[in-house]
Automatic annotation (TrEMBL):
Protein name per its UniProtKB record: Xanthine dehydrogenase molybdenum binding subunit apoprotein
Keywords assigned by UniProt, alphabetized: Molybdenum, Oxidoreductase
GO MF term set: iron ion binding; oxidoreductase activity
Organism lineage string: Bacteria, Pseudomonadati, Pseudomonadota, Alphaproteobacteria, Hyphomicrobiales
Pfam families attached to this UniProt entry: Ald_Xan_dh_C (PF01315), MoCoBD_1 (PF02738), MoCoBD_2 (PF20256)
Domain Aldehyde oxidase/xanthine dehydrogenase a/b hammerhead: 32-143
Species the sequence originates in: Rhizobium azibense
């Protein structure tokens, strides 16, 4: 720490620089209502679209009578499977060609309950809603397969690329002195972000502007451009604020295609807001999963084999894989391993991504099973995890970059008071409450896709940073400002960050918990370039007051260009820019590899996930890690479970802003509590329909369900993982929470619940 002129401190982790606990810069705008969300955008002449859904899950539309709707007041257009425009099939998010044939946003073939069958567009929302109710649809109905548990669903289709095997797992399991074999299940779970999906679509000739909450404006703009056969540059998505996404706002969806189509046909801007109920069927959440796990071990608890056979439901018309082997294959040191997975087509909307797709249900199975093994061999649940600690990646057989999981167990256990646990189930109680202590680990990979950022230093002493990357509440605005502030020496309140607009420099998806690492990396690079240019001008410009200075002696701090100590106060950047007659210094930088910088490679990098690097690429295996310690209180008579205390220790490498990372961790843990105890899409088996399609019946935790959550960072900077040393934050914390709670419930009650959520009827 250096002190200049007695007050300004250099090298201090002040709130405004990287590593500081700056509060969210978008917070005041959100709290005061100044932040305007997609559907709040006011636009002249806007008309309203309302979706109509199928009431059956399987069959064909035989007739659709739209005449009453068309004659209804204010109605401008009714879109049906018979009159929609056939769009061009678009490249998938993975970068592979889309399905053959045209893209049909509506079809007469019904494959799930709640499938869109028509859209009504009218002058007002009320008129569109009233007219939508007048549409009469009749169907040739077929028997639907309601879900994974439907006998007719069968075993499904093997997904060969999910197979992970080494050693001879089946034989080693058969010969193991101790064996645990059980089935673990998770139900359909939904993203339910508070801001429902929707958009405003406006055409100006062949230029399409969309106000739509998006986790990935560039990727979605590509889909829209391809569907409507427009140049990519003609599509602009504006998404500065997003009311949560949790994985559900990364891809273009059929309802949006219909709104855009209607706007074109009518030559009027169209606004479409899904209802809350429609957010359960307009896109899918986490598919239901089941997995059998066989754990073979020595009598001392050393793992000899893991055999996993998993399945997740998918739609009749598309493939969704929830990788159940994701955690199973890397968590423990095991000489024999086999994981295989099937997908089972059922009559449901295509499942999507929900916070830690794969890792989440994977950890649910494994971290429950290892707990069962701990009791079977009679050792402590933390001990058994340390006994089987993987010193390197057991699957890729390469070293970890960093793995602070041992530290997480030690630090978390200490803070929780784990050593005071009495090992026997049902041995701790407080009156009528059975008390249980449980533990589980979690992990999430470090994903890497290059990013791009623009830095602009302006003559008024402020700086602008721009990128199409988004902030849906994670903190992107804030950490980007901190990064730029640290490099440019411009105070954070003089930095304006612009995000969420596909007209800005490109960025990959805010998904897979990668955006923080890649955007801070890109901003750091662009800001360094701007800083170099500023100092270069200070040394060389004919009008610069520093022309006589030696190279490498100038610094920039707190908005001033400073000479070496003792040689004066320096000059404010604003004054300097004026003196040299410059309005701005602008640097655009990306973190693309040299050979991918131009043309199609560059375009694909930002508009597909084709270029995302595997966490094992580059010789190290890159992952974040965590350990959750939970106390539950179970009412012995009623079977109600309360999480009364939780301590989690997490390794996400270096934190760019600990306050925000802790908030991410708490948010994820709360979602984990919901998953463990409350969340479940309840399927009416007769109609293959999710019936609790609203926030009164689809239960998520409220404040009274959540105790004080202690979160502790045990990470260390990891420069294999990212330029600035951070690892994944966003999805890590949900992983392992549900099994930690189930393990605590077992400790409290002696009952092993292997099917989520842990509701009271399963306990009494
Ligand atoms: N962070 C940090 N230090 C790091 C990494 C991250 O301080 N080394 C903090 C930053 O505040 C950063 C945040 O954690 O903004 C999340 O960073 P990261 O893990 O890179 O995740 P992304 O920015 O890519 O965000 C996506 C991630 C995902 S995939 C889901 S799902 C999810 C999540 O973020 N959905 C969310 N968190 C969410 N939070 C909110 N409020 N709303 C959602 O929909
Ligand atoms: Mo997160 S489910 O990867 O958007």
């Amino acid at each position: 720490m250096t002190v200049i002129e007695g007050k300004i401190k250099r090298g201090d982790a002040a709130d405004g620089v990287l590593g500081g606990r700056l509060s969210r810069l978008d917070g005041p705008a959100k709290i005061t209502g100044k932040a305007s969300y997609a559907l709040e955008h006011q636009i002249e002449g806007v008309v309203h679209a309302v979706m109509v859904q199928s009431t059956i899950a399987a069959g064909t539309i035989s007739t659709m009578n739209i005449s009453a709707a068309e004659a209804s007041p204010g109605v401008l257009l009714v879109l049906t499977p018979d009159n929609i425009t056939q769009l061009k099939s678009a490249t998938t998010w993975a970068g592979t060609p889309g399905p053959e044939g045209p893209y049909l946003a509506l079809t007469n073939e019904i494959t799930f309950s709640g499938q869109h069958v028509a859209a009504v567009i009218a002058e007002t929302l009320e008129q569109a809603t009233a007219a939508a109710a007048l549409i009469e649809v009749s169907y040739d109905e077929k028997q639907a397969i309601f879900g994974l548990d439907d006998e007719r669903a069968g075993e499904g289709i093997a997904v060969e690329k999910m197979t992970i095997e080494w050693g001879n797992a089946e034989q080693a399991l058969a010969e193991a002195p101790v064996r645990i074999e059980a089935e673990y299940k998770t139900p359909r779970e939904y993203n339910v972000p508070i801001e429902p999906h929707g958009l405003i679509a406006k055409w100006d000739g062949d230029v399409l502007t969309l106000w739509e909450g998006s986790q990935w404006v560039d990727g979605m703009a590509r889909s829209y451009a391809e569907w409507f056969e427009l140049p990519f540059e003609n599509v602009r998505i504006i998404s500065p604020y997003i009311g949560g996404g949790f994985g559900s706002k990364a891809l273009s969806l059929p309802h949006a295609a219909l709104a855009i189509m209607a706007a074109r046909k009518l030559a009027r801007p169209v606004k479409l807001a899904l209802t809350r109920a429609q957010t359960f069927t307009a896109f899918g959440g986490r598919p239901a999963t089941r997995q059998t796990l066989g754990l073979g071990a020595t009598k001392e608890g050393k793992l000899l084999s893991i055999v996993q056979r998993g399945a997740n439901e998918t739609a009749m018309t598309g493939v969704a894989v929830e990788p159940l082997g994701a955690v199973t294959s890397i968590m423990y040191d095991v000489p024999n391993f086999s994981s295989r997975q099937n997908i089972v087509p059922v009559h449901t909307v295509l499942p999507g991504a929900l916070r830690a797709p794969g890792e989440n249900p994977s950890a649910w199975g494994l971290e429950s099973a290892i707990d069962e093994l701990a009791y079977a061999v009679g050792i402590d649940p933390v001990e058994i995890r340390l006994l089987n600690y993987a010193e390197r990646d057991p699957h890729a057989k390469i070293p970890w970059s960093t793995r602070q999981l041992r530290e997480a167990f030690a630090v978390g256990g200490e803070a929780f008071g784990w050593s005071k646990r009495s090992p026997k189930p049902r041995s701790m109680r407080d009156g009528n409450a059975l008390i249980g202590w449980g533990v589980a680990a979690g992990t999430y990979p470090v994903r890497r896709t290059p990013g791009e950022a623009l830095v602009r230093v302006l003559a008024d002493g402020t700086a602008e940073i721009a990128s199409s990357g988004i902030d849906m509440g994670q903190g992107t605005y804030t950490i980007i400002a901190q990064t730029a502030s640290e490099v440019l020496g411009v105070p954070v309140d003089k930095i304006h960050v612009k995000l969420g607009d596909s007209a800005l420099p490109r960025a990959p998806v805010a998904g897979g918990s990668q955006l923080a690492n890649l955007m801070t990396g890109a901003v750091h690079k662009a800001a360094l370039a701007a800083r170099d240019e500023l100092i270069g001008l200070a040394l060389n410009d004919v009008n610069s007051p520093f022309r006589e200075a030696q190279a490498n002696t100038l610094t920039i701090f707190e908005g001033r260009i400073l000479p070496p100590r003792g040689e004066g106060d320096g000059v404010a950047i604003a004054d300097f820019m004026r003196q040299i007659g410059r309005e701005k210094i602008e640097t655009l930088r990306d973190t693309l590899p040299e050979d991918r910088r131009d043309g199609k490679d560059r375009y694909d990098n930002f508009t597909t996930m084709m270029t995302m690097k595997a966490p094992t690429e580059g010789g190290y295996s890159l992952h974040s890690w965590c350990a959750h310690f939970v106390e539950v209180r179970v009412d012995e008579d009623f079977g109600t479970v309360r999480v009364s205390r939780m301590v989690s220790a997490l390794d996400s490498g270096r934190l760019y802003n600990p306050k925000l990372a802790e908030s991410q961790w708490r948010g994820g843990i709360i979602m984990g509590i919901g998953q463990a105890l409350l969340e479940e899409g309840i399927v009416d088996e007769r109609h293959a329909r999710v019936i609790n399609n609203n926030l009164a019946d689809y239960l998520v935790p409220t404040n009274s369900d959540v105790p004080d959550l202690q979160v502790i960072s045990v990470g260390i900077p990891d420069h294999h993982a990212s330029v600035l040393g951070g690892k994944a934050v966003g999805e890590l914390p949900i992983v392992g929470v549900a099994p930690a709670i189930a393990n605590a419930v077992f400790h409290a009650t002696g009952k092993r619940i292997r099917s989520l959520p842990i509701t009271l009827e399963k306990l009494i």
